Amino acid sequence: MKRRAALKSLVLTVGGTIYLPAWANNWNLDTIPEKQNGFVSPDQESLLAEIVETIIPATDTPGAKDLGVHLFILTMLADCYDKSAQTRFLTGLAELDKKVKDNYNQSFVACTPAQCLAVLKDCEEAAKLLPPAKEPFFPF
Predict the structure, then answer these.
(1) pLDDT band at 49, cuts 50/70/90?
(2) Reduced 3-state DSSP string for the chain
(3) What is the pTM of this model?
(4) Are residues 22 and 81 in the same domain?
(5) Res 30: pLDDT
(6) Same domain, 27 and 93
């Protein structure tokens, strides 16, 4: 009986080793179908794209915008979060853009990379001052 289990494991391992690289090589930004994220406007999408590009800029490797990280975030929000979480996220984007407009008289998208980085660092420092969440991370 143990031989059957060993043979089955061996076949699955060899098959996976052969098939997995071919499967993984077919995944790239061009082959992933575009999903319309109906809960955001094009302006909000471009704002999010600039935010993620500020966090992971393009260097000798592609940046977050080139890799579609903002689209991944929007897909996760649309598929995995309820309307209240989506609304909180969009409210946060609007507040960030308002802060930028108050400080620099232009939108986040129009700011220089140094200005964008300064705004995100300010947000990080402000978040450190917030009280910790009352709900446990693992609710058990």
Answers:
(1) very high
(2) CHHHHHHHHHHHHHHHHHHHHHHHHCCCCCCCCCCCCCCCCHHHHHHHHHHHHHHCCCCCCCCHHHHCHHHHHHHHHHHHCCHHHHHHHHHHHHHHHHHHHHHHCCCHHHCCHHHHHHHHHHHHHHHHCCCCCCCCCCCC
(3) 0.70
(4) no
(5) 67
(6) no
